[in-house]
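Case study 2.
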Amino acid sequence: MSFLCYNILLNKNKMSFGTFPKISLINKIFNINDNEWSRVGFAWIIRFLYRVGFVVGWTIIVAMFVARYGIASLPYLFVMNAFFTILGTVFYSSLLHHFRKNVLMIWTVVAAIITLSLAYLLAKFDLIYFFLLLVVAESIFLVQFKIIFDGYIEEMFTPLESERTFPLIEASETVGGIIAGLGVTLLAGSIDTFNFVVLWIMFLLLMIPLIVLYETFFEKVEVISLSLGRTTRVGVMSKLKNEFRNVKHMGFIKGLFLVVFLQWVLFNLLEFQYTKAVYQTVSNVVMEAGSGFEHAFVHDLGILYVLFSSSALLVQLFIGSRIINYLGVIGSMILHTIVTFLSLFGLILSFDFTTAILAKNNFTITSIINMNAYHSAYYAVKDKLREHTRELLEGVVRPVGAIVGTLFLITLQFLFKDDVLIFAVNLVMIIVTILFFVVTYLLQQKYTEVAVFDLSESKNRIVRLNAIDILSQKGHRNVLPIFSKILSRKDENVVVKLKILKALRELEYADAIPMIMNVLYDEKPRIRLAALNTLLSYDKLPSILSKNLKLEYDLVNLLKQLYVDEKNAELKMAILRLLSFISTIYAIDFLLEVLKKSTGSLKADVIFALGACADPSMVNILLPFLSVTNKKQRAAAAIALGKISNYNFEIDKVVDNFISFRSNNENILALMIIGDLRMRNKISYCLRMLESKNSDVRLHAAITMAKIGDDRSIPVILEFLLSHKESTVFKVKKMLENIDVRISKNIDRMLKHLVAEKINELISTDKRKIDLDKLNNKQLLDLRRLYSIIEEYDEVDVINSALKI
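Prediction:
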């Protein structure tokens, strides 16, 4: 699978002006790069085929089992399925250490095909062995195939790529569910139910050549995973015991165990009630057509699966991530329990086909949100233990929950009958849901405590940065005192402080403003600048200050004092920008006072800041500066007036005057005015400057065109970003802060693509995992530079640990 996404011609790491990167419409929609399509396509198709086969298989297993043995026997099928899942987890845990994943996947599919073929041959002779073999194929081989393949996919993509590619790959399962449901619905009246096994086998057979072909023809598309060779192998249980030594982590992981356990207790109870409702109200239309009960049952299960999968797909595409962003990780999990409780309450009031289907549909939809949030919660577990924890939860705790839920059903069937049994099962589900809610609600505090502990106590910077990411999510309480304590430490790591300030930008808590004001006293200029930019990012800052006059007074006075004391020109400009953003009487009064006293470039900065106030009364103050001799002040006045009022003729005269000088400095000033005021009528001039031999002029021309929204700026900006000079990269990134959003996203996307290519060029290897201890210092320094460009500081830290300096 290949889609033309880029048109980048590199010649010794330089991009010529005539060939700039282009992104096709399909790549823009799916946010996928050209070199990723083969891997995404392979992963998507395999998951799709797996899901279609799985849904077809599980539907016929349930339908035929219920048709032969009755709805009352369904719990025994659930127990058998869960038992074999645990057995498969234990069996495969040893195989994973001895075989490559691709080999194990192929042989697992082959084993499943052989088992299903034997089941098909026995279908007409021995139903017990038929069902036993179907369950073995599904719960031992195919469930384990899914677990292995998920790990295989993770190795195919870097963390950078996974952020964009995984949502698309995960959608394959929902689409597969829809296709499988449609297939079952359409074929239910045409073929005998057991013949669906042949269809299942066909989908599995298609997977084998795809895996072989991918390994054969796409082996060159490798992903480099950074690691140090100085590690020791420790057993799964030993690692988990080490993790449990910390009370905070133990409490959180136990909470996750209970969440997964109760989710699957509830799932099996609801699955039984839903199946029973369908069983009792099988479509009369299909039955009258002469296809019989079993065919009608399969038909209805198929069409309902289409309904559930379609609903889930809509949630995945449109609101899933938004809900998690709005409610936070644990809040989204709590939403699942609340919606489930309301749906089950409806079942208590009236158990019929409609309420059962509604409950099942709501449970399926919110389960999508719950599972996405649940996987995000794994980041609170130490990196080296996440995979082992996931294996334990998915391979053991999940089926144990299913077994316990089924045992509830079996017990209730012995104690109650008919309508009393229905009410009893519904009541148990309500109780389990309440417990589910309580456990999930309590998990929020444990989730916060783990992140706070890692941030406050860990000596590993990567762990601490990850903790800040967690605490930046919605739902955490009393986070600000922790952030304040870290920010007030004089010996605190600069990167950690910057990460907290970045988190506060996203949270925009009004209560955090006094804390950020204290950071303005930090001795490091970089921290002070970040604090100023954090306050500038508060969109509602003027509104917040208007409701708290004391805070407004304190902030303006602080900024005035800082401006007087500050020696750094960039920080002085940031202070002026913040004062103009506040735009109160006190702030503007100070700006006008500074305007009178300042000279040269400093006066130009004040003029620019006054323009940001967007106050028409400033026109008479700014207009005279269009004719001053200081060129920077003239440029600043042109930009300021352009933002306040319509002075196009006067501004054009200033720009044309700068252009007429034909010197680099004047060209840069002209480009700054054109970019800040988005003067599209000057685009031909910008194109000429884009070919300038002076690097500063060329860079400013590219930034100007990026502000206007012209794609032709992209290759030049990428060229500067890929420069070997770190100072140049830092300078360009600062200039990119105010460019067109679309251009910014495209630059970010292409930069990651190009860096990934350069990393693969830098280290040619047949392995998917790179041992950094085997690289020389030059390679390590080049790697560090590349990862620094895309701000992947976790990888930078790993490389720093390996540097032999």
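Residues 35 and 109 are 28 Å apart (CA to CA).
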